[in-house]
User: What shape does this take?
Amino acid sequence: MKHQLLTILLIGFQLASAQVFDKETIKNSGNNDKRINLVILSEGYQTSELAQFKTDAINFMDGMFNQSPFKEYANYFNVHIIKVPSNESGADHPGTATNVTEPYNNLSTKFVDTYFNATYDSFGSHWLLYYEIDGYSANNTEAKINNVLASNFPTFDQALILVNSTEYGGSGGNFPMAYKGTWGTNVIMHELGHSLFNLKDEYYPGDILAAEAINMTQETNTSLIRWKNWLNINNVGIYQYTCATGNCANWYKPHQNCIMEKIDKPFCSVCKEGIIEKIHSMVSPIDSYTPVSSAITNPSFPIDFHLELIKPNPNTLKSVWTLNTSDFANDVDDISIVETDLIIGMNTITVAVNDATSILKVDNHDSFHVQTVTWTIDNTALGIKDIASEMANYNITMYPNPTNTVVNFKFESNTDAILKVDIVGINGNMIKTLSINNYQTNMVDISDLNSGIYLSNFYIGNVRIASKKLIKF
Assistant: This one.
């Protein structure tokens, strides 16, 4: 989950020049180890302007977490700032852009002494505000950025650079950079779409950058396209890229008004879904639970079990509690067990948590995440002998869906568990069953089944952790 910038990677002068700067948390949702940590670095702010940098960073943060899907999942993020002072204010304006007539917008050529050498006109584009004027020079500055992060916040998930300039500009790459003005937040969100969430531009990015991705494809079959679950909803379709040269006519995008194309637009439904999927892959919604094995001494009835969840807003998390494989409670954070609930011998309590947000088209969505906590209770005639607990994360993929011939099941977990899959008819009749080892993909032939809706039930041991529709056409 975290970028571990280890000191051993910083050699020679980089290690010798490591500096510790003042840092501050401006959004604290919980433990850094259980959140996505965004780190904002100041650029072009003199020491006397660092208080303004904090204000600008808070304004950026507020703007970001006021827009979907970050608004709904704000509790999954922490935001930190590192106050890196520059000798002079602003950013370079070399006046060397080739895509405008210089001097553009009455801006005079200037060069200022800043820590990360933020520069307009990078790679010949006036609005490309980047650390350095070109890729070669940027290698040295990127090492400097890494050095600052390693010395000040090595466990970041994504670092951003906020520039003390009111002239529109920004860039992507490993460390997105943006001006502090009106559209700066949207510039950063667009660039975060690339660097953190693996989204593509929805204007044609060029042949070198064109590739199959969450929001870019060459597939046009409506039953196979990546965003089939969103087709004809919220203006999602299959839109051909347009341009005069290159291979863009071979590529398609899901929307015509998405921030990944136009900076003044929101994220489209397909991109929101991709962002949430990445959030779920990085952070478990189970923040903590009790009791834990190491804290259980002389347990007596009733025994209380509690989940502390990282809840979206509005809360869309669903939980299913089972006791000895039988349903016990749904959608609650706390349960209590009394003596008559248990059998003599080993008892198992499991709670499975998943996100049922409508921003994910769950029923037809290929991949979904389930997190569980399992308590094993050794109950004797003389009372509780022992309680052990274990937390697990599961990523299950079922594709293609709908399908006519075969369906693939893929399973990943942080445990050595085996996933059992039962395909059953709507009437409850068992059709097929299979077991899938961790990091394994199994292909199932369903060509002999009648067209219709089936259920895929997923089990760890004897506990059902999820159930999804499977459509045969």
